[in-house]
Prior knowledge:
Strand content of chain B: under 5%
Helix content of chain C: over 70%
Number of strands of chain C: 0
Number of strands of chain B: 0
Structural class of chain B: mainly alpha
Helix content of chain B: over 70%
Strand content of chain C: under 5%
Oligomer: heterotrimer
Amino acid sequence: MTQPLTIDRITAHYGTTKVLEDLSLSVAEGELVSLLGASGCGKTTTLRLVAGFLQPTAGAIRLGDKDLTRLPAHQRDIGLVFQNYALFPHLTVRENVAFGLKQRKVAGPERLKRADAMLDRVGLAHLADRLPAALSGGQKQRVALARALVIEPPLLMFDEPLSNLDAKLRVDMRVEIRQLQRANGTTALYVTHDQEEAFSISDRVAIMHQGRIMQLDTPEVLYQRPANAFVANFVGFENLIPLRVTARNGADITAQTAEGAALTLSQDQLGPIPDAFTLATRPDGLQVTVTGGAGLPATLGLRTYLGRAYQYQAKAGGLALLANGPLSQPLDPGTAVTLVPNPEQCAILKPE
Amino acid sequence: MATRIHPLLILFTVLVYVFLLGPLIIIFGASLSDTTYLTFPPQGLSFRWFQNIWDISAFRRTIVTSLQMAFLGTAIALVIGIPAAYALNRYRVTLPGWLSTLFVLPILVPEIVIGFSLLRSVTVQAGVPVWYALLIGHTLLVIPYVIRVVSASLASFDFSIEEAAISLGSPPARTFFTIVLPNIRSGVIAAFILSFITSINDVSVSLFLTGPGVSTLPIQLLAHMEQFFDPTIASVSVVLMLLTILVMIIVERTLGLAIVAK
Amino acid sequence: MKRLAGWMLASPATLAITFLLVIPVAITVGLSFGSPGQGDWGIVQPYADFFASGFRRNVLWRTFTVAGWVTVISLAAGLATAYVVARCPPWMKSTLIVLAVFPLLTGVVVRSFAWLVLLGREGMVNQVLQATGLTDGPVAMLYTQGAVIVAMVYIFVPLMVLVLVGVLENIPEDLMQASSSLGAGPVASFFQVTLPLAVPGLIVGAVLVFTASFTSYATPHLLGGTRQMMMGTFLQQRALVAFDWPGAAVVAAIMLAVIVATVLVMTRVARRLNPMAT
Lengths: 352, 262, 278
């Protein structure tokens, strides 16, 4: 029976250093939420707190109605998949998978049967009698997965499970994980530093930084509507242009940069725009044109080749920007251009 | 990760440590006793038994001999052992596999058998004078420690910096002294200290190689115990313990005590 | 030149050990054998004599017994202690390790002497026994097998603790977390995961202590004397007291054989049992 997970105002310390402060997060029944961020952001700490390897200094953790906060790790009934697989080297693959069932006092023949069934589901039935040392990285990860699934836990947690695998395998495995999680309908918390991985398989993603959740939303919203400069930068909005509204005309507004360059933007396309704001754009969202017109005047710098387009460093007044231009028109450094924002690749950031 | 440990286990551990350190504290107390016999708790407090160490010429002589053996034996072992350790790491492929086993033999073969064999072959048959035979015994005893500890240090040594130096024009011999040695400094110091202590404390080898006028402190202690069972033994023990503490402080300062992973 | 460089650097040590260890020990072993026509057994006659003597058989058996007990007790006490130490926070762990190293660095003589004082007629143990009323008069504890065993356990427990802390720390932390997450409490995790993975290291520690205690001299000499003669003290007695060199050589050769056999057998066993060997 899967359960929803509630992390309620958790504060955690390593010694005297505070690593998490007042963190709250809810994962609905059957949902897969990813904790995404660079190392040191607190995502692994959060996972370890839920698992019971670390005690919070304040706050509570609940799985459904059960309060886990003071419960020892081995009584929490959570399926964990580790970064380094953590397979028991002295037990066969089958015995590894059956380990959790053994702790739950499932009878010998029954637990081996269930272990075999689960190994079959992950496609490793033929390796049941081998020792972990004989397996490849991908195979080990599948065994780790089987071991966590076979105990039918109310919650699954993944601690960067794919970071030790090579690129192609990572893509295949993340799909498998998502399929298994969906099929079982188990609530899942997934920790990773890989943005593509998190976005591709999660129902919602929490982008973390320095022990706080910067934004918790679906991948689509995070990608298109970052809530603050950190998240914007994280999801690829390289350019942050501070602007001030100078005129409003219905849904259209005119805004100026500090140097006086003017841009016209539509609230129909971009949502409500406050008087002072930052325009965040992706490099693709800032088009390079040599003809004049509405936009940011800029001088081009280094040109790099992306395969699908050219990317230019550009200086517009005091701003250092990245803008993409078509392959048909390679431009040299020093060229004076106008940068025109493409609303589809832009987001409005309110002042923080 | 602080798992909760069963209180009985913790109690047991405390008892084990009391067991380990208690007797040493008792010796310390006994050394201060103002009696002619060994007793604890001490009756009266006096340093006379420490004074007595100095008064007894046998102790004075054997302390000197022990220090000579330790310093010289270790020095010779370093001179012989460091190149051997270097060869094992750098030229591993050109050397037979059994060589590292050979180097470890003085640890494998029982010390008492080594002592007896040296007595027979070196002292009796070859007629080597006692002092030199003793030195040979001590050197032999510590060679494996030198080789093992320095080897461990070399295993984590990046040999490409040696190659870089040579490519920049430094001849191999000079490179060894200016590039390799300074970077395995901690291993050499650890080897020195381990060997020194092993030599100072040795009984089983020295037993056979001591003679009239040439003896080491532990052997002298044993002899003294047979004749006079008095607090001098306790005070010598205290001196040895203080020496050990001194050595540990030196290790802590130069290496950090984590080095004691044998 | 490269080819010879290794040999040139290694030769002083090789020569030293060959001429000062291998050859003398070989000579000793050679000395232990008799001449072809000797007695009923020819060249192994001295060994036949050794095993024919009840006294000598006792000495050998006693040495095995004492070494065995010392190993088992040190292993048990050492493992329990190492388990606790390995789980302590870093600052406490290093303090505890230093405290275990300290006795190790003081010599055998000092540490054996401590027990001589403790177990004597006026020693602390007797004082406590009489004070608590457990006995009426002083109990003679010295020169008993028990005294030798206790003193030797005292010598070897620190070594065992240090070796086993290393062994336990080599077990990856995430295995313990995995075990815990799958529902195994501390006891279950210890017996199902920690212990099986520690076995090779336990064997190393046990071999170390067994061989050292089997060949020990100072402690059996001080605590056991001639009443509890062991192979080490017997060898000394034969060589330096009775000047029976061939007899001493036999003792030495038997000791060597026991040690070599133990090491060889246990290395093989440890390698077979090692689950982390690829």
